[in-house]
Amino acid sequence: NNPEQLIKNADIALHEAKKQGKNRCEYFSSALEMMFQKENDIEEYILSALENNRFYMTYQTQYTMDKKIRGIESLIRLCNDNGETVSPVDFIPVAEKSDLIIKIDDWVLEHVLDDTLELVSKTNNEITVSVNVSAKHIMSDNYAKAVIEKLEKRGYPAKSLEIEITEYCLLGNLNNAIENLTILRNAGVQIAIDDFGTGYSSLGNISKLPIDLLKIDKVFIDNAAENQLDEDFINIIISIAHLINCKVICEGVEQEAQLDILRRHSCDYIQGFLWSRPMVIDEVVKEIVGER
Ligand code: C2E
Ligand code: MG
Ligand code: MG
Questions:
Q1: 11 Cα: distance to centroid of ligand 2 (angstroms)
Q2: Which of 208, 196, 133, 130 is nearest to 167 (CA)?
Q3: pLDDT at 99
Q4: Given a cut of 90, is residue 27 above it in pLDDT?
Q5: Residue-level pLDDT at 292
Q6: Ligand nearest to the CA of 136
Q7: Phi first, then psi: what are they for 21, rounded to 5°?
Q8: 222-256 pLDDT, tens per residue?
């Protein structure tokens, strides 16, 4: 009805076109406007949470099949104004649409290295500490160099750090991703592919990457005890991992019956509520150092 509104709405469509990868058309709609508002609110919330220390890290233990500790995965949490915990599924996807994810990833890596340096040394560098890294970050210039600097600054053993990436990394600037991963791997850092089988798996690309660990997504194990096809998929993914000389871990293991299936198919490690939930670092230290 008026030029200001027209230009504002056009700007929302323009913004969406840029977010979707530029060089494309997007139409304005009221649904787009609502999504834009919601994402803007979340983005502002993330920025203020970074400034006000409202993020914190939790860690979930990973085990060998005979319940020895293999390592821990770091999982971010946000504490909202009411003191409630906000899950990363509610803010990471929004952060990934903008450069905020780079800020979050940097914050996470610094915190995880500081939180776990002592724990790693107490275990004679035997546990692996995993960090989730967004596809955008792994494709960016000089990512590997920045990680190595953070390790060196602390005297943190590179082999104790594992970077978890998803198959989305293979969709964008594959050359940059491979370069960063190769530099990290040569420095001793381990590389894991997260949520394997749910993204755009390209076996051709997977075999090009320097990988140490494949993580089988929870969706495959969820019904494996009742559904033979799901069990067959698990079996095949484990075979693929072993074929390319990777270890394999299954995420989201909640039942003994699922554990039996994974043992039967020679899975290497598991992670799931059956044996552990994400905990704050003090609890992890108690569990791991207490265990030794
Ligand atoms: P993910 O990396 O695949 O992490 C595994 C998720 O499964 C975690 O959810 C974990 O709490 C949950 N989980 C583990 N075992 C079980 C189980 O037995 N049952 C069920 N129902 N769930 C289980 P969370 O912590 O909510 O994280 C969700 C996703 O958010 C992560 O998936 C990861 O993609 C992302 N994320 C978490 N922390 C970070 C981070 O620090 N940086 C980035 N870039 N992404 C993160
Ligand atoms: Mg992960
Ligand atoms: Mg996963």
A1: 35
A2: 196
A3: 87
A4: yes
A5: 62
A6: 1
A7: 115, 15
A8: 999 999 999 999 999 999 999 999 999 999 999 99
Quick one: average pLDDT of 167-190? 88
The tens digit of pLDDT for each residue in 58-111 reads 999 999 999 999 999 999 999 988 889 999 999 999 999 888 999 999 999 999
Q: Tell the residue number behind the tokens 């894991």, with chain if given.
A: 192
CA distances from 81 to 10, 54, 75, 124, 270 (A): 33, 9, 20, 40, 35
Mean pLDDT over each residue of the chain, to the nearest integer: 93
Site to probe by mutation for ligand 1, drawn from 50, 75, 221, 269 as the one with most ligand atoms within 8 Å of Cβ, is: 75
Q: What is the sign of the dihedral through the CA atoms of 99, 186, 132 and 48?
A: negative
Give the tokens for residue 203: 């076996």
* Cα of 134 from ligand 3 centre, angstroms: 12
| Residue 40 to residue 103: CA distance in whole angstroms | 16
Residue of 59, 132, 134, 279 to mutate, ligand 1, most atoms within 8 A of C-beta: 132
- Predicted structure pTM score: 0.92
Question: Quick one: average pLDDT of 211-219?
Answer: 95
The structure tokens listed for 159 are 């082999």
Looking at residue 59, what is its pLDDT? 98
Tokens of 78: 């946000």
Whether the CA torsion 170, 171, 176, 180 is positive or negative: it is negative
Residues 200/170, Cβ–Cβ less than 8 Å: yes
Residue 1's pLDDT is 86
245 exposure class (CB count in 10 Å sphere: 0-12, 13-18, 19+): exposed
Pairwise CA distance, residues 276 & 259, whole Å: 14
Question: Is beta strand 55-64 parallel, antiparallel or unpaired with respect to 269-271?
Answer: antiparallel
Report residues whose beta carbon is within 6 angstroms of any ligand 1 atom. Answer: 60, 74-76, 87-89, 92, 105, 108, 132-134, 194-195, 251-254, 271-273, 278
